[in-house]
Amino acid sequence: MAARTLYIAAYDVRDAKRLRKALLVLKKYSTGGQKSVFECYLTEAERSQLLAEVDEVLDSAADRFLLTPVDGRREVKVLGCAVPPSDPPFYYIG
Fold it and tell me: Where are the domains of the chain?
């Protein structure tokens, strides 16, 4: 199995129709998140596919998208009732 890296994906979409489409794309790849910020464990192939799908949805002149890796060597700190991110043993897509 290919190695997965934890990424934080975030977007700011100005149009309601594109916002809904972006949400549906991110939900396919995320293990958790809230509103417009998501935790995603991705292989390189999944990362490329996510970026391609987001690029099809967003308007590059009006919308913003960020996908940044989280350094796996450092401990992830959570506050409140947050749950630390984890890479599940399998994903259900359907």
Answer: 5-69
